[in-house]
Write a structure and sequence with these properties.
- Helices cover 48% and strands 18% of the residues.
- The protein is an alpha+beta fold.
- The strands form 2 sheets. The chain has a 4-stranded antiparallel β-sheet. It has a two-stranded antiparallel ribbon with strand order 2-3.
- α2 packs parallel to α3 and α5 packs parallel to α7.
């Protein structure tokens, strides 16, 4: 992470932002696993007005190098104070669609992370009830970094991998957010397609 020398005014503004901001709702569906997630436009739209009201803004810079899509996200305050972070993700499909998909994922993940936003549970919001505590609440999350560490093994697997079974195995020990689920599914499906093409 990079940052300006002082962060005091930005910190105060971010506290105000958290007091008025709402979490993005899951408005899109993963076609492979039928799970819902908040797409990039929803993440941006839900935070744009609260950011402006608090004197904050976000800019993102995209790049691609050596098979990796990179997104630098900067959170800026009107005082000139700022913080930034860079997320780099491997692209398994090196065409415009594949790279664009990874960049959109990285932008969505980074935008939410730098603001501390989570995806809202539509069912819980509709009923006005808190989700009940389940054993999953005691499990540590399976993070994007953990998935990235396994990417090489999945991409070089000599046999097809069933995404649902892989995720079920991970969920025995961890909780899996929909963003990470989508990332794993895309990696596995791409490898399975490569194996099918080579037969």
């Amino acid at each position: 992470m990079n940052r300006s020398e002082q962060l005091n005014e930005l910190a105060v503004a971010l506290v105000k932002f958290h007091a008025v901001a709402t979490n993005p709702k899951k408005n899109a569906t993963n076609p492979h696993l039928k799970s819902k997630y908040a797409d990039l436009s929803e993440v941006i739209n839900v935070s744009r007005t609260p950011l402006a009201e608090c004197g904050l803004s976000i800019v993102q810079f995209e790049s691609f190098e050596s098979g990796f899509a990179k997104v630098e996200t900067m959170l800026l305050h009107v005082s000139g104070q700022w913080v930034s972070n860079e997320l780099s993700l491997p692209c398994t499909k090196l065409d415009a669609q594949g790279i664009g998909s990874v960049l959109a994922y990285a932008r969505r993940y980074s935008w939410s992370a730098i603001l501390g936003l989570a995806q809202e549970d539509d069912d819980g919001s509709a009923t006005g009830q808190r989700p009940q505590t389940t054993p999953d609440a005691q499990k540590p999350p399976y993070t994007l970094e953990m998935a990235q560490a396994k990417t090489g093994a999945w991409e070089s697997s000599p046999k097809p991998i069933e995404a649902k079974r892989l995720l079920a195995t991970i969920r025995q020990q961890h909780t899996v957010e929909s963003d990470v689920e989508t990332y794993i599914t895309d990696i596995v499906n791409t490898r399975n397609q490569e194996l099918s093409a080579g037969e």
